[in-house]
Design a protein that fits this description.
heterotrimer, A alpha+beta, B mainly alpha, C alpha+beta, B: mainly alpha, Methane Monooxygenase Hydroxylase, Chain G, domain 1, Ribosomal Protein L9, domain 1, three-stranded antiparallel β-sheet, 6 helices, 12% strand, C: Methane Monooxygenase Hydroxylase, Chain G, domain 1, 2 domains, 14% strand, nucleus (chain C), SLD5_C (chain C), DNA replication complex GINS protein SLD5 (chain C), GINS_bundle-like_dom_sf (chain C), DNA replication (chain C)
Chain lengths: 187, 191, 218
C-alpha cells in the first residue's frame, strides 16, 4: 500500500471545522454532514475539510490531541512503556501531516508539534525494529500487533511478511513443527 | 549443449526488465530446429532394436521438454509486458514498441483489448467503468498541469475541448489528465 | 429543492435484507482492503458493486439538474470520485489476480456451486477468454512447430498458483476463539483473537475467517 492510499484511508476520519458559510445538511453516501452555520464548529471528513480550507471556506479545529502538551504526554508514555501504546488516533501521523499541510495557520505551535510527532514516530519505529527482529529470530508463526497504526504496518510491509515467507519455505523441508509458538508484542 | 539457445531467450528478457526487446525470431527458430533434431535422433535410436541407447533418449527428451518450457516462458513473459503496456499507454501501442512485437503478439494485444473492453463495459450491471483510470486515490477535482508538448485539441468526457500547447499551464479535471500524464504529455504540478 | 437529491438512503440487497447505503459503502471498503492484501482471489461482491453503481449514477443524474455553482455539487462529486476509486481499485486488484492465476482460478471455481463462485459472470467470461487467448498464442507461435510428442499444451505445467502460506496483517472484527494456525501443534494452546486486536499470521490459517467477515485484513 503506497502513501497516497494510506492518506486516502486516513482522509475518511472526521475533523471539526468552523465554516464561514451557511448551508443545510448534505446527504453524502458515506453519511450526513452539516448543517453548516458560519462560526459554529461542525464535523466533516478530512478530505472535505482540506478542500474547504484550500478554498478559504473554513478554519480547521485541530483534533483534541494535536497540541504540544498532549503529544508530550503521549511521547513520555511511549518512552516508558515496553510495548506499543495506543495512539490518540489510528492515523495520527497521516492526519497530522494532512492537516498541517493545509492548515498550519489554524494549528498553534505547529513546528513543535511536527518535532514531537517525529520523536514519537522514531520511538515506535525503534520498538518495531526490535519486535521484527524478535519475530524473525524466534520464528514466530503468529504475532500480536495491537495499537500499530496502518502507516507503521506499511513501514514493515512487504519486507517482514516477505522475509517470513522465505523462512517458512526454507523450513518447510524440515516440517512445520520447527516453528515456535505465538509472540505477543503488546500487553 | 542442448537447451543453450532456450536459456538465451530467458536471459534476454531478464536483461531488460522494463522494455520489450525485439521478438527474437532467429533464436526461436534455432530452438525449434534443435527440438526437431532431438526428436529425430530419439526416433532413430528407438527404431533400432534392443540395443537402443535409453540413457541418450532420456537426456534428449528432457532437453526437449526444457526447450519447450523456455520457449513458452519467453512468450508468456513477453505477453505480460505487453499486457502492462495496455494499462500504461492505453489501447494504442506506440509505434516504437509495436515494431518489436511479432504479428501474433499484435493479435494477442488486439484480442486482449477486446476482452478487457467487454469486461469493463459490463461492470456494475452494465454501467461500465474504465479501470485503467483512477489509478491513484483522488485528491482534488481539478489539478494543475504543465503541458510538455504541443498536443493540440483534447476533448474531455463532458465534451469540453481544450487546446494543449507546450509550456502552458492548465487547471483541468483530474480524470482525463491521468492518461496524458502517463504518456508524458502533461506534467502534474504539485506544491 | 430537496437536498437529499431524491436518493433513497436504504437499499435492498436481497429480499429480506435492507441496509443503509452507508453500510454498503463500508462493506465495499472492507472488501477492497481484504482483496488488496489477500494473496488469493476472494468471492466476488457483485451485489455490493452493482448497488454502489446505482447510487453513483443516480447521484450523477441528479447533480446534472442542479445549479453547478451550488457548493453541494462539488462536494458530492468529490465523494463520487472517492467511491469510484475504491470500486476501480477493487475490481482492478481482482483482475490482476485473475490474469496472473487464470488457470488456477478457473479450475477452482468450476468445483464450486454456481452461487458460491468467486468469479462474477463478467470476470468468468474474461478469465476464460484470457486463457484461450494465451493458449492460442502459444499454439500459433511455438507449439505447432514442435515435435509431435511435446506439442500438446499442458496447463498444469504453466499454472501459477497464489502463495497461501504468506503472512498477512489483520484485525479481528469480532472475537475468534479456538484458532489452530498452521505450524501449531497439539501442545500449543488454541489462539483467541479478541475483537479489535491486531495480528500477523499465515494467510492459509485464517482465510476462512477473512471470507466470513470475522477478520479484516489491514
Amino acid at each position: 500500500m503506497n502513501s497516497a492510499e494510506t492518506e486516502f484511508i486516513a482522509e475518511k476520519e472526521l475533523v471539526s471545522i468552523v465554516p464561514n458559510f451557511n448551508y443545510e445538511v448534505i446527504y453524502l453516501i458515506s453519511g450526513d454532514i452539516g448543517p453548516f452555520r458560519a462560526g459554529l464548529p461542525v464535523k466533516v471528513p478530512i478530505w472535505l475539510a482540506m478542500s474547504l480550507k484550500r478554498r478559504q471556506k473554513c478554519r480547521i479545529v485541530p483534533p483534541r490531541w494535536m497540541n504540544v502538551e498532549d503529544l508530550e504526554e503521549v511521547k513520555k508514555q511511549e518512552l516508558n512503556e515496553r510495548f506499543f501504546t495506543k495512539m490518540p488516533s489510528e492515523h495520527y501521523m497521516v492526519e497530522a501531516h494532512l492537516l498541517l499541510s493545509v492548515a498550519a495557520d489554524d494549528i498553534p505551535r505547529c513546528e513543535q508539534i511536527r518535532t514531537i510527532l517525529k520523536d514519537i514516530w522514531d520511538i515506535r519505529m525503534s520498538k518495531l525494529r526490535s519486535s521484527v527482529d524478535q519475530i524473525i529470530k524466534t520464528n514466530a508463526i503468529h504475532a500480536r500487533l495491537d495499537h500499530l497504526t496502518l502507516m507503521e504496518i506499511n513501514s514493515i510491509r512487504p519486507l517482514l511478511p516477505h522475509a517470513l515467507d522465505q523462512l517458512f519455505r526454507l523450513q518447510n523441508g524440515r516440517g512445520p513443527s520447527q516453528a515456535s509458538g505465538s509472540q505477543a508484542f503488546t500487553q | 549443449m542442448f537447451g543453450q539457445k532456450g536459456l538465451e531467450l530467458i536471459k534476454e528478457l531478464n536483461r531488460t526488465p522494463d522494455v520489450l526487446p525485439p521478438f527474437n525470431d532467429d533464436v526461436i527458430r534455432q530452438v525449434l530446429e534443435e527440438m526437431n533434431a532431438l526428436f529425430e535422433q530419439n526416433r532413430m535410436d528407438l527404431d533400432k532394436e534392443k540395443d537402443a541407447n535409453y540413457a541418450g533418449v532420456h537426456v534428449r527428451h528432457a532437453s526437449l521438454e526444457r526447450n519447450r518450457r523456455c520457449l513458452l516462458a519467453y512468450l508468456y513473459n513477453r505477453i505480460n509486458k505487453i499486457r502492462q503496456m495496455r494499462w500504461e499507454f492505453g489501447s494504442i501501442i506506440p509505434p516504437e514498441i509495436k515494431y518489436n512485437m511479432c504479428e501474433p503478439e499484435v493479435q494477442w494485444f488486439n484480442n486482449y483489448n477486446k476482452i478487457l473492453a467487454t469486461y469493463m463495459r459490463g461492470i456494475g450491471n452494465k454501467h461500465g467503468l474504465n479501470l485503467t483510470l483512477d489509478r491513484q486515490p483522488p485528491k482534488e477535482l481539478y489539478i494543475e498541469v504543465r503541458c510538455l508538448e504541443d498536443y493540440g485539441e483534447y476533448e474531455m468526457d463532458n465534451g469540453d475541448v481544450v487546446t494543449l500547447r507546450k509550456g502552458n499551464m492548465y487547471l483541468l479535471p483530474r480524470g482525463p489528465c491521468e492518461q496524458l500524464i502517463r504518456q508524458g504529455i502533461l506534467q502534474h504540478i504539485t506544491d | 429543492m430537496d437536498s437529499s437529491f431524491g436518493l433513497d438512503n436504504e437499499v435492498a440487497l436481497s429480499d429480506d435484507e435492507t441496509v443503509t447505503v452507508q453500510q454498503v459503502l463500508e462493506t465495499l471498503e472492507n472488501a477492497w482492503l481484504n482483496e488488496k492484501f489477500s494473496p488469493e482471489l476472494l468471492p466476488h461482491q457483485t451485489d455490493i458493486v452493482d448497488c454502489m453503481f446505482e447510487q453513483i449514477s443516480g447521484m450523477e443524474e441528479n447533480l446534472e439538474k442542479v445549479d453547478q455553482s451550488d457548493i453541494r455539487v462539488e462536494i458530492h462529486r468529490m465523494e463520487l470520485d472517492r467511491i469510484r476509486y475504491v470500486l476501480s481499485s477493487f475490481l482492478r486488484t481482482r483482475l490482476e489476480k485473475i490474469e496472473e492465476f487464470c488457470t488456477h482460478i478457473i479450475e477452482e471455481d468450476s468445483t464450486r456451486d454456481p452461487d458460491e463462485r468467486y468469479l462474477s459472470p463478467g470476470e468468468k467470461k474474461f478469465a476464460e477468454e484470457f486463457q484461450n487467448n494465451i493458449e492460442q498464442h502459444f499454439e500459433r507461435v511455438a507449439l505447432r512447430h514442435m515435435p509431435l510428442n511435446v506439442q500438446k499444451y499442458d496447463r498444469q505445467l504453466m499454472k501459477v498458483e497464489p502463495n497461501l502460506k504468506s503472512y498477512v496483517f489483520l484485525r479481528a472484527r469480532s472475537t475468534a476463539e479456538g484458532l489452530m494456525l498452521e505450524g501449531m501443534d497439539d501442545t500449543d494452546e488454541p489462539l483467541t483473537m479478541v475483537k479489535d486486536s491486531q495480528h500477523m499470521a499465515l494467510y492459509s490459517g485464517v482465510a476462512s475467517l477473512v471470507k466470513n467477515g470475522t477478520l479484516q485484513l489491514i
